[in-house]
Amino acid sequence: MFGFAMATVVLASFLIFVGGSVTSLDAGMAYPDAPLSNGALINPPGWLTEVKTFWEHKHRLVGWGVGLCAVATVVAGFATERRSWVRYASILSLLLIVSQGILGILRVRHDSVVLAMGHGVLGQVTFAWLVCAAMFSSPAWGRRLSASRSEEAGWRARWSGWLVGVLVVQLLLGAGVRHFGSFGLLIVHIWWGTMAAVIALRVTMRVLGEVVGDRGLRRAAAVLGMATVVQVLLGVGAFAVTGGSSALIESATLSQWILPTLHVLTGAVVLASAGAVCSLCQAGVVAESRVAASEAVTAA
């Protein structure tokens, strides 16, 4: 099950890049029908010859691939996984991916920028959940819940949880800027993003400074910190080449395509790594409570 879950994560990360490219290149309505592309499922005529049709149809093909991987994960989970809650997590992953696909279809059929924005936001949230669900399905997760954690796990759990909430708001603001080109939203996006980066780096430094034996948590925190720095730099670069939003660009150059798209992809990595840190810290709280309860029973 873990292998299929990881394959879903890898393919979903590529899907975010392709979907971000669709928005950067304004290719979302390259095919006015959905889920088919000019009536074809796999190989519509001429889709390889034009930039917009190439990226939009690739977006749909990769989306189908992610869905199939999620189905395989659920089947493998029910065949091999003994933990029922992990199986339910895989079902939730599939439901989120299906919902994302339906939202994408509605976005095309109604030619709606609002639905396009919702499609992008749900895509990043779904990716973050897929990362956490893959982590839950790993054999190491069960051992984590039976091990004692280091001090101040509660502090880290609270702050990482707040960070996830802050990043979701930042995601909404960024999607609004990207799809509507609002200068007011851009100012709020920059201000809120600065605050989110400070919190992310604070969580990273506290984890790396305080946690010694938990390699999984340290790695997740390191990814969070590095992705946050890269995300800030990409945000500056995307602002420089687009003037603040891809919606303001009629025909994107290479830099106007790549930098905003990588900004979207790295944002997804930041959210997913924050979710991983939060989940790992919450597992630490559960482990400490179990140890405390066991010690209380022993003392009694």
Which structural category fits the helices and strands? Answer: mainly alpha
Low-confidence stretches: 286-300
Helix content: over 70%
Largest β sheet strand count, sense and barrel closure: none
For the record, the count of structural domains works out to 2
Radius of gyration: 21 Å
The amount of beta strand, in percent, is under 5%
Tell me the number of strands. Answer: 0
Number of helices: 9
Separation of the first and last Cα atoms: 41 Å
Q: Estimate the global geometry from the Cα principal axes.
A: globular
Q: Helices and strands, in N-to-C order? A: HHHHHHHHH
Determine the mean pLDDT.
88
Summarize the structure.
With 300 residues, the protein is an all-alpha fold.
What do you see in this structure?
- There is one protein chain.
- The protein is built from nine helices and no strands.
- It is an all-alpha fold and 300 residues long.
- The chain has two domains: 1-137; 147-300.
- Helix 2 (51-80) runs antiparallel to helix 3 (84-110), helix 3 runs antiparallel to helix 4 (113-137) and helix 8 packs antiparallel against helix 9 (254-299).
- The longest helix has 46 residues, at 254-299.
- The N and C termini lie far apart (41 Å).
Topology:
Blueprint: H1 2-24, H2 51-80, H3 84-110, H4 113-137, H5 139-145, H6 153-180, H7 183-210, H8 215-242, H9 254-299
What labels describe this entry?
single chain; 300 residues; mainly alpha; 9 helices
